[in-house]
Design a protein that fits this description.
By secondary structure, the chain is mostly helical. The chain has nine helices and no strands.
Length: 278
């Protein structure tokens, strides 16, 4: 058998001899057997140690060569790194610049869209800002919406949304105006009724009913043909409104009911009659 490391071939040849020479078992229990075993061991050991020594001798220059290879590779790598690093830095700087430029464009686009959305939101918020405001202000805003034309340069691709928002807001404002006017009319009606009620209460308070006649032991009331006042004149009759006032003050009718009755009877005529009779 031969080895790739030729320096080992001599030992390889000795192995075959040693294998045959020392193949038999050694009886170390006898003095002679022990001597033979120690002799055989010493011979095999000598070859083994010589192999180890040879290995160290053969590998020493290889280890040195390995150190030289490692050191040279390290030096070359350092030289290449000094050349590569500036190139790598330039490439990375440009890649970083492009990424930052891309991010800046994305931020600018997001801010642009956000500004347009804010303008759209300002349009859509107009009805909310006019809740509870006078009808005149709503009318003014409707006129402004009719005249308003969204600027294409401001809304760009969102111009259709701006036009839709304007039309929607205008429709909402027109509905708000109708409701506002209806509410104002109802409020005015309630206020007029309240003022009229106060006026009627004042009239009731200013027109106390005539005191009832005192009872006496005099003869029974005369018949219509008699003249109770001694002058041949009858006591003046109460007007309808005076009768209502008297009834309300006597507690036989609520003031509100009397007012409603006065309305049905033609209250204005009753007031005129009452004023004339005073």
């Amino acid at each position: 058998m031969t080895y790739e490391i030729t320096e080992y071939n001599a030992t390889a040849a000795a192995i075959a001899i040693l294998r045959d020479k020392h193949a038999g078992p050694f009886d170390a229990t006898t003095k002679e057997g022990m001597a033979l075993a120690k002799e055989a061991r010493a011979e095999v050991r000598s070859y083994r140690t010589s192999v180890e020594k040879l290995r160290a001798e053969l590998k020493a220059p290889l280890l040195e060569r390995g150190k030289q290879i490692d050191a040279e590779a390290k030096r070359i790598t350092a030289e290449l790194t000094r050349i590569e690093e500036p190139i790598d830095a330039a490439i990375k700087a440009e890649e970083r610049r492009k990424e930052e430029e891309k991010a800046a464009k994305a931020r600018a686009e997001a801010e642009r869209v956000a500004r347009i959305n804010a303008r759209l939101l300002n349009i859509r918020r107009i009805p909310t800002s006019l809740m509870g405001r006078p009808a005149s202000e709503i009318e003014t805003e409707i006129a402004r919406m009719i005249a308003y034309q969204p600027n294409p340069e401001e809304f760009v691709e969102f111009l259709p949304e701006a036009l839709d928002a304007r039309n929607e807001v205008r429709a909402v404002l027109e509905t708000m105006l109708i409701e506002r006017k209806r509410a104002d009319e109802e409020k005015a009606k309630i206020q007029a009724e309240r003022e009229e009620l106060e006026r009627l209460r004042a009239i009731v308070a200013a027109n106390p009913p005539a005191p009832p006649p005192e009872l006496s032991a005099a003869p029974a009331p005369p018949t219509p043909s008699t003249k109770p006042n001694g002058r041949g004149k009858k006591a003046p009759a109460l007007t309808p409104i005076q009768s209502l006032i008297a009834t309300a003050q006597a507690g036989n009718m609520k003031i509100e009911d009397a007012i409603q009755t006065a309305y049905k009877m033609g209250y204005d005529d009753g007031v005129v009659a009452a004023t004339t009779a005073k």
